[in-house]
Amino acid sequence: MSAILFNKLSLRLLQATAAGLALACGAGAMAQDYPSKQVVVVVPFAPGGTVDNVARQVQEALGDRLKQTVIVENRAGAGGTIGTGTVAKAQPDGYRVGMVFDSYATEAHIYPNLAYSPSKDLTGVSYMVRSPMVLVVPATSPHKTLQDYINAAKTPDTVSYASVGAGSSNHLAAELFHETAGTSALHTPYKGGGPAMTDLMGAHVDSMIASLPLVLPHVQAGKLRALGVTSKARAAQLPDVPAIAETFKDFEIYSWVGMIAPAQTPAAVLKRLSDDVNATLKTPAISARLNEGGFEVVAGGPEQMNALVSSESQRWGRLIADKKIGQQ
């Protein structure tokens, strides 16, 4: 090898090494200074739903831990993919992150032309909370029991159910329920839990399988009637409501909420944010309030969130393919 060629190769190696060191130092400095400005948490659903509920409960306390203002930004539409898309395209610096519902795990199955890849463009920050779901009907519904509802749904196109979008746990849980029961119902998607609840209480739609925290206040107020819960055992908050598993063995579904960030966010930033989110969730006052509302605090880290998304994607992929569930 000539001396000139050797020198050129050496120079390039030095330049590459220097660039790598600069990048690493820059990421390290970013992590050390994080956060130095307000943090925006995108909720990809309308106000009033489950994800928005959790976000509002941790917003102030999380800001206190981060020593920066935390802004909750609602960006609803397309089953949560519009708001989540803004997180996927954000700078990977920890200043624009998202909170997602269980529907996040099925987006790639539902939207084949999704503008981002949940597995490549985004990563977990925290597996925050989970809750059982509840089959509810309006208080004025003629269906007094789970069996009443099953009997009615045996006649095609006579019962409708609401969801927060195609591929959401509301949608998939209802499809799995009707598949298990040998019944059918018409799907009515909404842009969030809030609008769905409003129409359900107004009897504009017949039923919904929704998260316990979302429906509990309305059941307690007598505006909705609970027919069954999707946990293996009865929920402590609704001890008189049977578990669906009492009728259909091993029927078990949980709704969940987690936090995500752009995939290239420095590990140290993810750790700081995850640690502070999870510490906030474990704060006695906040944990108690969430539990009273029907949530179970999980407070899992990035690895647990990523593992959850992967397992849920695999679990529901079969049903989505079998039922040909897509954009509706």
TrEMBL record:
UniProt KW keywords: Signal
Top-level division of the source organism's lineage: Bacteria
Membrane spanning residue stretches: none
Signal peptide feature range: 1-31
Keyword Transferase applies: no
InterPro entries hit by this protein: BUG, Bug_dom1
Protein family per UniProt: Belongs to the UPF0065 (bug) family.
Protein name, UniProt field: Tripartite tricarboxylate transporter substrate binding protein
